[in-house]
Amino acid sequence: MTQNPFGEGGFDLGAMLEQAQQMQQQLLDAQAQLGSRTVTGSSGGVTVTLTGTGELTNVEFAPGSVPGDEDSLTDLGDLVVAAFRDAKGKADAMASDTLGPLTGGLGGPGGALGGPVV
Questions:
Q1: Distance from C-alpha of 116 to C-alpha of 2, rounded to nearest angstrom
Q2: In whole angstroms, how far apart are CA 53 and each of 2, 31, 100, 117?
Q3: How do 46-51 and 56-61 pair as beta strands?
Q4: In this model, does residue 1 exceed pLDDT 60?
Q5: Is 78 part of a structural domain of the chain?
């Protein structure tokens, strides 16, 4: 008689699927937690704010760091954020197009395994 390589109970596909679903939920929960947190970085009078998932949410210029009035600098910060989001969306789409066939649509940007969603 041949011995079962998966042990006495055999291969439990249901348990494996349940574990995969739990891992997916943990990834989604962690992603949501990161998305709700922010970090800031600054250099030369410019401060940027990112979410924990890397989304640029704000750009501020310290008074006197860049020539211009306060309203113009606020508008410039908004334009930088918009340009970043446009480029990030294009980069995510490019990654999805490139990696999608390799991952079967799983795990890439915004994929079913909880990839970054922008």
A1: 46
A2: 50, 7, 21, 9
A3: antiparallel
A4: no
A5: yes
Query: Are residues 79 and 71 in contact, defined by beta-carbon separation less than 8 angstroms?
Result: no
Digit-coded pLDDT (tens) for 26-78: 998 888 888 889 999 999 889 999 988 888 999 998 888 888 788 888 888 99
Q: Is there a domain that residue 43 lies in?
A: yes
Spell out the residues 6+ positions from residue 62 whose beta carbon is closer than 8 angstroms to its own. 45, 46, 47
Placement of tokens 């439990």 in the chain:
12
Residue 22 maps to a domain: no
CA dist 91 and 58 (Å) reads: 20
Backbone phi, psi, residue 50, to 5°:
-125, 150
The answer, as to whether pTM is greater than 0.70, is no
What is the C-alpha separation between 46 and 106, in angstroms, rounded?
A: 37
Least confident of 21-25, 78-82, 87-91, 112-116: 112-116
